[in-house]
Each structure stands twice: as structure tokens, then as C-alpha cells.
């Protein structure tokens, strides 16, 4: 039975305190019992605290655009009359209060005040003593762990039903069974790794790698002295110019494994006349990862006093500023695919023709549906002779996928391929009996056990946001990180979390890969992700670089396959079964029920505020259009390499690659299918009729869009009237006429000095161009976009 195989944490009291590891508390991180004895990195000397400290605050600087984003915490504070405080703030206050009490009133013996039970606990302290007696038949137990051999034994019919489409759960076992043909293809495709076969004595220090002095200086000052296994193997090969396919567990230093050799190569680049060029491209799947990657490169460059310039090409930041930087031919480009293609297509004279090295971080994600078209487009723009390096903790070595990247005899550098999660990671699983108990369970867990430094992953942005309101109303401080936020908000959330001004970071899978946030103690999966790789990356946000950490996954019935797969890929001693006392869950469920209306109220207030701001923005947009229409219309329309339809298809394919495989997303799909009569809006129409209907709809959409523009312009004019009494405003009609000129009008280069918009106009540019002018620029139909050759 269970206990033979896994430890059960039968109350939600704090398990071994992962967070108290000295490394994170700023104390000297030496020989701590918490540290894994097999730990390969060298942190003696406190390297982590003084070394690479990402998300320290600089990333957000300079991004403020003046408009304060809507913050639900403010709405909650307004309603409750006091602002939310983080766990740290509360701890500080409590300490100060105790001190004050001790100083002023030494003689008075207060009644027993439980140390750890702060004001939050007073609300639910009574539930704390509950033992975990029930839940004894928890399914996250030994029989599951043990089920590697007899997986299907206890599976009921339900499970058999999803058997057919739950590929990822099966994949872990299937992966091992490669056919002889596949193996032969791999044999032919990959070159042998000399560091693995011929040379077992890998460099044990960076100094032994023949790196140039400035770089060694940089590594020393960042207190990186001993290379991690992936660094020890990949750096020498990369310095030889070999194509590499690199994989090692999360948090094992893959970023430096590619950054160090490429900076070394750049130290010896041609600096003569015409030698300046964009030589290195690092592609990352998310903006945050790109920002982080740039921070690593810049830290090494600055510490070593190297003359290497970086450009960050990611969405959400100013296109103009990026185009301007590109004009100065930076050495290293760190980009997300979409923004890079935008520049390749629309920034005059920018090319990748001088590229020496292409690095693709989180390469397996980039090879997934949705990114592939973009990746192919980028590869086409790179010279064939480049060096290519691919890295990920869950790297594919499927030849079919990799041939797309035209690798040249790549070397597979897979460190400890059997290990999928970090050694210091303890993975806990909580059984969720019915979906109604999921939110109360999370709340109970966070109110009583996981108080700070915790990332919580949600399947959807809406859910993450809703839960943030729930947390706020329960006095818990959280920030959100997902695609519904502006780039500024995203970076701000990361910094707030890093600084400890919020205790929880509510994220979607946007944050599951690559992010290296120091001191994350716990990762909670509110729901299990749809793919095992996602699970691996999510839980990999903790227990990084030899530290301890824990993940807690809430596992419902529909997640059983994923649970098995997760357990199967881990060591048995990493797995724990956590039970949250049902009384605690019930109490939280009651509480949630009580605040149900208030949650709706907060959401309503937020929506109203959003609408007001939107109206305000429309007004401003209209004003800009009126005041600067000549200049705005004179700008060249931005183009994209795919048609709008292809773009949408790629987008939904990308989404499917992540979300589509969620078990209950599938269930939802199935049940929809079962529902039957719901038909597509074009169903039953002939092709001709369908096309006609689609064209009509498109025209209507165009009409609506131009109506709203005209409306915005009219509003703007009205608003402008009182202040501009003596100035005649241009007539609304003229807007349409002007737009007609765009196609034949003279297009100005983004680099033409006279076309450079004044600072005042710069921030206004992108939106009006995209929203209103793209269609007009294309002759009003808004169908095909110019294709890049
Ligand atoms: N040689 C080293 N010695 C000690 N710490 C290191 C070393 N190299 C990197 N680190 C630290 O390890 C941490 C994790 O590194 P990094 O983010 O590159 O991991 P990763 O393998 O890319 O993880 P993921 O798979 O999640 O993207 C960073 O904080 C980094 O500073």
C-alpha cells in the first residue's frame, strides 16, 4: 500500500522547510544539510546572491509609459478600506509589534500568542488542528507509483475511454521504444560526441576551457567557477563551431552553456571596416525569457569589460527604438520569432546575412506547431554556413523535426537523459475529488502552508485573474503573469514577486519555461498541464541550480494519466502524497461562497474601469488621428509574411499544442460533440454560398471598424472644440480621402530623418497604423498581406 512507496504528508502543516535554505536567505550558503550531496555547482562564497541576479528591477526601468494599469488590489483595497500586504510586510509588522510590546511592557505577561499564527490565521485558525484522518484512499498513492509495471490494473472504464487520445501519457513509455530504422536515422544524422566517448576528463573549471581573460574575469566576478555538466560538455564543442543539440534538467545552467562560447567567439570577431554586423541570434519563445537571456549576456559582457552590444527584439516594446538599435548593427540579437520577422520584413536594410551563430532556446517548444512557420521563415533568412545550437530541458531528438533547421552534423549533448526533474525537487500531489474543491483546496494550502515565494500555474488567463481576486479578498497578495497583460505589467509582476512585495505569482504556461527567479520555494499546479514536458518545465521553476524546492500539484480524476506520467519520470523518493484536511477545505469553500457576490462586484468594477479607460483611449486615438493624420498615413504599412488566415491558424495550432491536450479540454470537446445539434455557421452551405457569406461578413467587419474610427474622430473633434475655438478642424471626410492616397503615396523609410516622428508622436504610432490603416493601405479589403520573399 501507499506508505511502502511514498511518504504521505497527512496534514497540511509545513513540510521540511525548503525555503529556509541559507542560499535564499542571504546567509552564507555553505554545507547545509538541505543541500543535495551530489550537488555539482559551487555556491560557496554566496555566488548566487552576488552573482547573476535576474529580475532585480532594471528590466522594468524605462518602460513606464505614464498610464497606470488597472490593479484589482486597488479595487479590493478601496472596497475594504485598507491595502493588501505581503507576507513579508506582515512578518515585519508583527516583529516590530512584538518588539515594541517587549520594550514598553516587560512586566505584563500576555496570553499565549501562537507565534506562527498571524492575523490571517485568526480567521481560520480553528481548522488548523484537524488531522488528516480521512482521505485514506487517496489515489496518489503507492499503487499509482507502483503502477509502472501494471498501469492499467486499476484503471476503470473512464480511463479506457480516453486511452485513444491521451498520447502524452503514453508517450513516456513509447519514447523508449525506438524502431531500428529510427535509431539508424539518428545514427546517420548526429555526429558522435567526443566529450562523451573520447574524453571522460571534462573541464572541471572555466579556467581549463581556454576562455579569454575578460570572460574568465566576468565569470569569476559572477562567482561562477565550476561549470555545470552541460556547460562542461557543451562549451568546448561550441567553441569548435559544432552544431549542438543540448539537453539537461531545468535550472542546470543551459543559458550560460551557449552564452559563454558565443561571447568568446565574439571577442575575436573582425572589427575592421565593414566588420560590424549582427553575428549572433538567440531565439526565445517568450519575451520574458528573451529579457532574461539578455540580462545574462549583458552581465557577462559588463563584468568582463567586453565590447559586445546586444539588441532585444521582442513584442510589447517599441518597434521604433528596436529599428533604431538595429541600424547600429548590434553583435547579438535576442528575439522572439514574431518580432524578429516583423523587423526582417519591415525594417529597411536589416538582414541576418552576416549571422555566424543561431541559438534556439527552448527549442522543442519552438519546433511545435504554431512556431514552425515562423522558424522556417527565420532559418531561410540565415546563412547556411552558420553554427546552430539548440537547447531545452525537454529536447526532442526527432530527426524529422530537426532537419527543418538544416543542422550540420549536430552533436547530441544530453546530460543525464534519464533524469527529467532536478534532484532537489520534491513533488507533492494532492487528490482533488471534485472540481468544486479545487479552489478551496488551493486557498487552504496557501492560507495555512505555502505563505510566500510561490508560483501558481493555471490553465487559463481568466482563471488566474479570477483567483487573484479571490486571493486579494482573502488578504493574500498575488501578481499575475500571462498574455492578457501589457509587457510593462508582465515585467512589473516578475519584479514584484522577486522583490517579495507579493507572495504568489499567478501564471499561465507563458512562465513555465526558462524563467530563473531566485528563491522560488514552491510551484503549485492548480491543474495539471496538458503535456508532460509542460509539467517538467513548470515544476522546474523551483529547485534550480542545486537548491531544494517543492511542487504541489492538485490532481483531479481527469489528470490521472498525467499524474502517472509525472510519477513515472521521477525518482520514488521525490514523490509525496499531500492531504489537505477536508475541514480546512470545507471552511474555505464556505468562505468562497460568502464572498461570491463580492468577487462579482470587484470584477464588475474592474470591467467598468476598463471600459472607461478604453473610451478615453479611443478619444485620444481619434485626437491623434485628427492632429497628425498626414504623418500617420504617410508611414509605410507594416507587412507580415503570412496571410491573416495563416497567422490565425498558426496561432490556434500553437494554442492547441499546449491547451488542446488538456484532458478536460478534450472532455469538453467530446461533450460538445455529443451535444450534437450545435452546427458551424457555414455548415450546410455550398462553397459558393459560404464564400459569399464570408465576404459579406468581412465587409461588415470593415464597415464596423471604419465606423468606430470615424466615431472616435468625431468624438475627438467634439472634445477638441472648446479649446480650439479659433482653429478650424479638418473635415471627417478628408480622412477617407487622405487614406486613398496611401497606396500611391511616397513611402518613407523608417531610417529617413525627415520621417522620424517627434517624440510626442512616437508612442501613438503603432496602434493607429495597425488598427485603422492596414486595411486602407491594402485597398480597403484587408485580405492579402504582402509576402516576404
Ligand atoms: N556554473 C554555474 N555555477 C553555479 N550556478 C550557475 C552556473 N551556471 C549557471 N548557474 C545558475 O543556475 C541558474 C539556472 O541557470 P539557467 O537559467 O541557465 O538554467 P536552465 O538550464 O536554462 O534552466 P531551464 O531549463 O529552466 O531554462 C541561474 O541562476 C544561473 O545563474
From TrEMBL:
Chief site of localization: nucleus
Compartment(s): Nucleus
GO annotation, cellular component aspect: cytosol; nucleus
Helicase C-terminal domain location: 424-593
Domain Helicase ATP-binding span(s) in chain numbering: 235-413
Residue stretches of biased makeup (Acidic residues): 99-180
Region feature Disordered, mapped onto this chain: 1-182, 643-789
UniProt KW keywords: ATP-binding, Coiled coil, Helicase, Hydrolase, Nucleotide-binding, Nucleus, Ribosome biogenesis, RNA-binding
Residue ranges of the motif Q motif: 204-232
CDD domains: DEADc_DDX27 (cd17947), SF2_C_DEAD (cd18787)
Keyword ATP-binding: yes
A Pfam family it matches: DEAD
Enzyme Commission no: 3.6.4.13
GO molecular function: ATP binding; hydrolase activity; RNA binding; RNA helicase activity
Coiled coil ranges: 585-612
A biological process term (GO) from this entry: ribosome biogenesis
Composition bias type Basic residues, residue spans: 734-748, 778-789
Ranges for domain DEAD-box RNA helicase Q: 204-232
Catalytic activity: ATP + H2O = ADP + phosphate + H(+)
UniProt record similarity statement: Belongs to the DEAD box helicase family.
Protein name per Swiss-Prot or TrEMBL: RNA helicase
Record organism: Kwoniella bestiolae CBS 10118
Amino acid at each position: 500500500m501507499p506508505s511502502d512507496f511514498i511518504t504521505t504528508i497527512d496534514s497540511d502543516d509545513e513540510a521540511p522547510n525548503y525555503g529556509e535554505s541559507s542560499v535564499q536567505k542571504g546567509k552564507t550558503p555553505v554545507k547545509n544539510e538541505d543541500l543535495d550531496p551530489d550537488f555539482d555547482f559551487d555556491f560557496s562564497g554566496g555566488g548566487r546572491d552576488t552573482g547573476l541576479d535576474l529580475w532585480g528591477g532594471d528590466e522594468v526601468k524605462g518602460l513606464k509609459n505614464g498610464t497606470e494599469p488597472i490593479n484589482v488590489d486597488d479595487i479590493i483595497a478601496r472596497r475594504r478600506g485598507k491595502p493588501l500586504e505581503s507576507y513579508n510586510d506582515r512578518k515585519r509588522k508583527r516583529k516590530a509589534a512584538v518588539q515594541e510590546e517587549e520594550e514598553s511592557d516587560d512586566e505584563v505577561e500576555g496570553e499565549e500568542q501562537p507565534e506562527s499564527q498571524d492575523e490571517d490565521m485568526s480567521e481560520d485558525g480553528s481548522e488548523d488542528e484537524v488531522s488528516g484522518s480521512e482521505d485514506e484512499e487517496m489515489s496518489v498513492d503507492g499503487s499509482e507509483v507502483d503502477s509502472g509495471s501494471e498501469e492499467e490494473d486499476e484503471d476503470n472504464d473512464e480511463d479506457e475511454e480516453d486511452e485513444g487520445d491521451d498520447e502524452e501519457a503514453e508517450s513516456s513509455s513509447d519514447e523508449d521504444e525506438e524502431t531500428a530504422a529510427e535509431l539508424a536515422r539518428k545514427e546517420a544524422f548526429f555526429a558522435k560526441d567526443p566529450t562523451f566517448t573520447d574524453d571522460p576528463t571534462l573541464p572541471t573549471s572555466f579556467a581549463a576551457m581556454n576562455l579569454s581573460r575578460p570572460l574568465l574575469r566576468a565569470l569569476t566576478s559572477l562567482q561562477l567557477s565550476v561549470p555545470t555538466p552541460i556547460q562542461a560538455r557543451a562549451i568546448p564543442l561550441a567553441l569548435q563551431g559544432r552544431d549542438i543539440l543540448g539537453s539537461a534538467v531545468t535550472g542546470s545552467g543551459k543559458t550560460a552553456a551557449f552564452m559563454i562560447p558565443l561571447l568568446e567567439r565574439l571577442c575575436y570577431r573582425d572589427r575592421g571596416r565593414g566588420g560590424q554586423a549582427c553575428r549572433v541570434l538567440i531565439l526565445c519563445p517568450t519575451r520574458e525569457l528573451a529579457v532574461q537571456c539578455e540580462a545574462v549576456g549583458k552581465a557577462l559582457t559588463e563584468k568582463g569589460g567586453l565590447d559586445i552590444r546586444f539588441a532585444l527584439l521582442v513584442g510589447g516594446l517599441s518597434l521604433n527604438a528596436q529599428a533604431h538599435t538595429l541600424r547600429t548593427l548590434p553583435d547579438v540579437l535576442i528575439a522572439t520569432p514574431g518580432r524578429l520577422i516583423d523587423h526582417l520584413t519591415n525594417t529597411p536594410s536589416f538582414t541576418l546575412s552576416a549571422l555566424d551563430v543561431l541559438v534556439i532556446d527552448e527549442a522543442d517548444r519552438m519546433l511545435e506547431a504554431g512556431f514552425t512557420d515562423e522558424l522556417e521563415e527565420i532559418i531561410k533568412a540565415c546563412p547556411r554556413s552558420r553554427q546552430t545550437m539548440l537547447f531545452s530541458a525537454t529536447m526532442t531528438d526527432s530527426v524529422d523535426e530537426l532537419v527543418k533547421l538544416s543542422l550540420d552534423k549536430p552533436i547530441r549533448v544530453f546530460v543525464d537523459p534519464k533524469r527529467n526533474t532536478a534532484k532537489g525537487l520534491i513533488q507533492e500531489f494532492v487528490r482533488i475529488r471534485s472540481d468544486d474543491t479545487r479552489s478551496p483546496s488551493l486557498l487552504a494550502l496557501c492560507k495555512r502552508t505555502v505563505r510566500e515565494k510561490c508560483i501558481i500555474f493555471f490553465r487559463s488567463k481568466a482563471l488566474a485573474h479570477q483567483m487573484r481576486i479571490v486571493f486579494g479578498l482573502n488578504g493574500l497578495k498575488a501578481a499575475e503573469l500571462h498574455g492578457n497583460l501589457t509587457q510593462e505589467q508582465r515585467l512589473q509582476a516578475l519584479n514584484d514577486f522577486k522583490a517579495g512585495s507579493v507572495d504568489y505569482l499567478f501564471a499561465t504556461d507563458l512562465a513555465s519555461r526558462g524563467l530563473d527567479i531566485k528563491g522560488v520555494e514552491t510551484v503549485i499546479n492548480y491543474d495539471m498541464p496538458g503535456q508532460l514536458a509542460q509539467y517538467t518545465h513548470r515544476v522546474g521553476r523551483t529547485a534550480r541550480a542545486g537548491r531544494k524546492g517543492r511542487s504541489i500539484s492538485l490532481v483531479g480524476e481527469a489528470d490521472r494519466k498525467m499524474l502517472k506520467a509525472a510519477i513515472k519520470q521521477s525518482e520514488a523518493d521525490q514523490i509525496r502524497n499531500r492531504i489537505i484536511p477536508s475541514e480546512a477545505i470545507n471552511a474555505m469553500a464556505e468562505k468562497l461562497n460568502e464572498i461570491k457576490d463580492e468577487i462579482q462586484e470587484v470584477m464588475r468594477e474592474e470591467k467598468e474601469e476598463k471600459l472607461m479607460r478604453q473610451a478615453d483611449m479611443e478619444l485620444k486615438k481619434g485626437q491623434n488621428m485628427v492632429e497628425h493624420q498626414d504623418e500617420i498615413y504617410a508611414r509605410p504599412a507594416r507587412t507580415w509574411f503570412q496571410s491573416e488566415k495563416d497567422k490565425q491558424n498558426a496561432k490556434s495550432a500553437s494554442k492547441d499544442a499546449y491547451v488542446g491536450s488538456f484532458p478536460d479540454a478534450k472532455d469538453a470537446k467530446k461533450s460538445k460533440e455529443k451535444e450534437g445539434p450545435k452546427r458551424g455557421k457555414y455548415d450546410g452551405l455550398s462553397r459558393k454560398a459560404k464564400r459569399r457569406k464570408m465576404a459579406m461578413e468581412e465587409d461588415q467587419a470593415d464597415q464596423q471598424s471604419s465606423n468606430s474610427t470615424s466615431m472616435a474622430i468625431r468624438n475627438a473633434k467634439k472634445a477638441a472644440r472648446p479649446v480650439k475655438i479659433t482653429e478650424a478642424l479638418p473635415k471627417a471626410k478628408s480622412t477617407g480621402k487622405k487614406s486613398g492616397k496611401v497606396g500611391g503615396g511616397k513611402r518613407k523609410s523608417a531610417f529617413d530623418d525627415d520621417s522620424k516622428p517627434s517624440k510626442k508622436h512616437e508612442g501613438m504610432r503603432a496602434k493607429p497604423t495597425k488598427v485603422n490603416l492596414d486595411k486602407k493601405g491594402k485597398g480597403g479589403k484587408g485580405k492579402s498581406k504582402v509576402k516576404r520573399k
